[in-house]
Every structure is written in structure tokens, then in C-alpha cells.
């Protein structure tokens, strides 16, 4: 339990996923690993949240309403306030073209749904470690 007035020092992960159940499951898995979780239901909401409170990493689905993950990645990279935030794309649409497009836009890695818990944890840790190396 945090003391009154103390700041939560855990690394923050922003999860952008339109499937509420999957978003909650991924959040629970990562919260159990000690991360603070923020959730967005679409890419537009994720971009706005990242601008307001830059997280340590963003996990983006590709297929989302209003703004998809590819568009959100481009918007995040175009904004100096969010350009350096590591992005992990998490999608069932893991075609070669989607992977290449996301990586070309600046995503750090890609995980294909369905995935197992250990793989998700490993990918998040690896992307966070890469992000620290480039700062």
C-alpha cells in the first residue's frame, strides 16, 4: 500500500487493445510482474494517454477502432513527447507486411496472438531493456 502523497514508482505499461477481456488479462499478467497498468480501448485513446502521462512501454494491438496500431505508432513517433517510448505490437495480424510496417515505423518488437504468458513477460522485459540502452 502506498503512503499518502507517495508516488507510484513502478514502471508504467500502457496497453491499447479493443478487446476488453484480453486487455484485462494482459494487464493482470503484467501487474503481477510489478508493473503499473494503464488501459486504452483504441489507438487514439492510447496516443492521448501517452502524451498526458508517458509510460515506460506501450503495447499496441493492430486492429482497433478510431485509430489502429499502425496509425498510433506513426502518431507516437511523430510527437517529440512520445517518440522515444518503446512500442511492442501485439496482434493476431502477424503477417510479414504488418510486422515490417510496424518495425519500420519504430516499434521495437512484435508478438503474435495467441501468445503464452511467459513469452509476453519476456518480450516486455526485452523491449524495456532495449529502451534503456537507447536512452
The coarse overall form would be globular
Order of helices and strands: EHEHEHEHEH
Q: What is the C-alpha radius of gyration, as a whole number of Å?
A: 14 Å
Count every helix, treating DSSP H or I runs of 4 or more residues as helices: 5
Q: What share of the residues does DSSP label as strand, in percent? A: 15-25%
Q: What count of structural domains?
A: 1
Structural class: alpha/beta
Taking the alpha carbons of the first and last residues, their distance comes to 31 Å
Helix content: 40-55%
How many strand units?
5
Question: How would you characterize this protein structure?
Answer:
The chain has helices at 20-31, 43-52, 69-78, 96-105, 117-133; strands at 12-16, 36-40, 57-60, 87-91, 109-112. It is α/β, with parallel strands linked by helices and 135 residues long. It has one domain: Response regulator (Rossmann fold), CATH 3.40.50. A five-stranded parallel β-sheet has the order 2-1-3-4-5, with helices on both faces. Strand 4 (87-91), helix 4 (96-105) and strand 5 form a beta-alpha-beta unit. The longest helix is centred in the C-terminal third of the chain and has 17 residues, at 117-133. The termini are far apart. The mean pLDDT is 90.
